[in-house]
Write a structure and sequence with these properties.
The protein has helices at 3-15, 18-24, 29-43, 59-87, 99-103, 105-116, 129-137, 183-188, 199-210, 225-233, 247-252, 281-290; strands spanning 48-51, 54-57, 91-97, 120-126, 143-147, 156-171, 191-194, 218-222, 238-242, 255-258, 265-274, 296-298. The chain has 299 residues and is α/β, with parallel strands linked by helices.
């Protein structure tokens, strides 16, 4: 069936006039009449009958007009849905993040995004930097937010969203709380160390190597940043954590920074995407919302 002719017929049925239908479709009246006659010939039955200066649908025309309304209504809905997906008004956004951005900045960013795009389904999962990279590479997620320097991979690129710092912290009643000391003295005190494979643990050991200082005397080894901070808050030892993770505790005075003069350890939060692949519209909209204008780009 010729859909163009069917559209002309549907407009004739809706307006009750070939002249008005032709005008609405930007056709000449003879062209609209020809399309109507072609459709009748194709179907082998009359669809409209003259009634004075107007027209009347035949029983076959009534049936076809009802189906045509359903068809073009579905066409409109399909176009609307596809356009919504194209510009990111609908669809899904899948994010994998390491612990720090997943617990701190991302929840507020996601709420802000949902306020702008309420029909987009957002899924946030957390994992190590290695897991986040793997999920991004196998297309299980659309973007990954990683704290610190993620594994080198030629298939991914990133923008730096925030520049946090790794700092030494202690309970407010600890002898070193708020004090300035040396890395060697810190490593000699009771230390709460993260699990093997942790980025902060690797960074701490790199500092020890760079300053030729023995590794920390481990008092406790804990898996998880949140659990590590809770142990420090309980009053035991010193640890090495992102400042963003303890911002509230530092502000309230529950925890205190232990400073090592001249030592500043950057801890960037980066957003990773796949190289050479345009992000889907929801991911692109999210990135545009959170990315600073002068983000540092790398791969």
């Amino acid at each position: 069936m010729n859909l163009h002719a069917l559209r002309v017929f549907a407009e004739v049925a809706s307006t009750g006039s070939v002249t008005r239908a032709a005008g609405n479709l930007l056709l000449s009246q003879p062209a609209a009449t020809a399309q109507l006659r072609n459709l009748e010939q194709e179907l082998g039955m009359k669809l409209v009958a003259s009634k004075g200066r107007s027209i009347q649908l035949t029983p076959a025309g009534e049936r076809l007009a009802a189906r045509a309304r359903q068809l073009f209504s579905l066409e409109y809905e399909m176009e609307r849905e596809m356009n919504a997906l194209k510009i990111g008004l609908e669809g899904s956004l899948r994010i994998c993040a390491t612990d720090l951005p997943g617990r701190t900045v991302l929840p507020a960013w996601i709420v802000r995004f949902k306020q702008q795009y309420p029909k987009v389904h957002v899924q946030l999962t957390r994992g190590s930097s290695r897991i986040a990279m793997e999920r991004l590479l196998d297309h299980s997620v659309d973007i990954a937010l990683i704290c610190g320097e993620g594994p080198k991979d030629s298939g991914l690129e990133y923008i730096t969203l925030l520049e946090d710092e790794l700092i030494f912290i202690a309970h407010r009643d600890h002898p070193l709380a708020g004090a300035a000391t040396t890395l060697q003295e810190l490593m000699a005190t009771a230390f709460i160390l993260r699990e093997e494979g942790s980025y902060t643990r690797r960074k701490l050991f790199s500092l020890c190597d760079a300053y030729e200082v023995p590794k920390p005397r481990t008092g406790i080894c804990i898996e998880g940043m949140h659990e590590t901070i809770e142990a420090v808050k309980s009053g035991y030892g010193v640890s090495f954590v992102p400042s963003l993770a303890v911002a509230r505790e530092l502000k309230s005075g529950e925890l205190a920074e232990v400073r090592v003069p001249g030592m500043r350890v950057k801890d960037p939060i980066r957003l990773y995407t796949r190289i050479g692949e345009e992000p889907l519209a929801p991911a692109a909209n999210f990135m545009a919302m959170i990315a600073p204008p002068l983000s540092q780009v790398g791969s």
